[in-house]
Amino acid sequence: xxxxxxxxxxxFSPGSKSEHEAVYLETEExxxxxxxxxxxxxxxxxxKAFIGKNIIAEGELNDYFFEITxxxxxxx
Amino acid sequence: MSHSIKVIxxxxxxxxxxxxxxxxxxxxxxxxxxxxDKKRQLDTHxxxxxxxxxxxxxxxxxxxxxxxxxxKEAVDAVARKLNPAYILLFGxxxxxxFQEVKNPAKDDDPTVPTDxxxxxESAYGTDVxxxxxxxxxxxxxxxxxxxxDMKYLGIVFKNIIGYKKIPSAKLDKYFSVSAYEWRKxxxxxxxxxxGNAGSLKLAPPAKPAYTAKDLSPLVHFYxxxxxxxxxxxxxxxxxxxxxxxHSANLNGKIxxxxxxxxxxxxxxxxxxxxxxxxxxxxxxNTYFYNHAIxxxxxxxxxxxxxxxxxxxxxxxxxxVRNVKQGASTGRAFLEARQKFLSVSGPHLDVYELKTLAQFxxxxxxxxxxxxxxxxxxxxxxxxxxxxNLFNKGLNLHATIxxxxxxxxxxxxxxxxxxxxxxxxxxxxxxxxxxxxxxxxVKMKNKKMDSFAKGxxxxxxxxxxxxxxxxxxxxxxxxxxxxxxxxQCGEEVLGWKVYHRKS
Lengths: 76, 502
Description:
- The complex is a heterodimer of chains A (76) and B (502).
- By secondary structure, chain A is mainly beta.
- Chain A has one helix at 45-48; strands at residues 2-12, 20-26, 31-36, 54-61, 66-68, 73-74.
- Chain A has one domain (2-74).
- Chain A is globular.
């Protein structure tokens, strides 16, 4: 599936043992935590490059992540 | 010594649907385990809660369909009827459901999958506050979700059936990996358990290239990051999160009878390997595939400080200590839960409640890992121990007062804090402008309620939490993540910080 939105950062589960600066995709329907399929869920430099940008990304949505399967495209 | 009762509880329909023709082989494994239990003075009953014949044998009603509610009610019926010393749930979530309670903490988990309600007398529900009195010894043998693997089951059952108790000194060595950031807390835990933390590995630099020799100790302890449906545990140093352990790295390197405790978020989850990015098994399933005997870990996001001890550090540590002292893994875990409640109570904040619910025991709870430790001044039978644990659990349930959400008092909406709170905010590195939530302690015991009201001028006890909304990992600063202040009116009774980074 394809999702369109803005890449932003946020703190995942503050105060927990998993707390970290996570990357999210803010879409019109809601916010999804981003991860590349096979990538590190806590820190992925290639995703950080999109922070603040609007993208269209192909991927799979599950209960926890939107897992990007192909390189996202930047949009206006 | 008289025999104790053990029950193996599962679903015939779900096993038949999943294993199809191989169901008979699964049933045979269960019967082999029950037969071998006789040598350990255990009368073991296999109970398919959705099978008329099986239920009739133990005098309970079969369930029409296996749901969370019917599974809980069936376990309660079995417990009332047979008073088993050990309850073994067989199968992962696609065979026998985890219970699911609402997440009491403010984090990203909507619910908490848990086996805690199966260990409690309270009726089916989704409020964890009802389950503050665990009285039953419960464990679960997980199969591999959505996967039929008879080799795996063969290994798991062979290990349990053939298990021979070992001298406790054999649990004096350990394999332990900690995220670098949590090195102080983990070193304290490991020193408490083993007397020294000299072999503790920190990630980074540690990574999953551990040799069979590294992994040979019979106790494994992890304090790393974990992620859902992920075959890795992760270390951390600053903003680096390298892989600290990978399930495939364990293959062929684990000693038979290894006991594992993992503090990691999602550390004990078992999932369909087809859903995982690299199609790898969960770390928990992989341990059992490689002859581990017991695994304690969390279903969801867990909590604990980076320095000092709290929450996940405590419940996992108590479990390992009890195993080393000769308890069966099931009793070790029940006693760990009770000790956690005793230490954390009488008033539980929402992070303590979540910790209680989210950790569960995988493996046969009747396995005693080490030989009986001889004491000169007395001994207890299993029945006497269960009586004691049952009474202790009921007492805990009667006296522990969990907390629940409340609206922020109108008088506190100004953003101004009294001097005592300002002092705490300053000491803990909080500004007071973080996200703030209020919880009220729900007293269950009238006498305690009346004492507290008299003692504390008839004012309710509250927990006030401040959750930082900015990343705390800034160089040369001391910041914390969640601040919990316990107070009664304006009087501060105490405060705690969870997951401190320094």
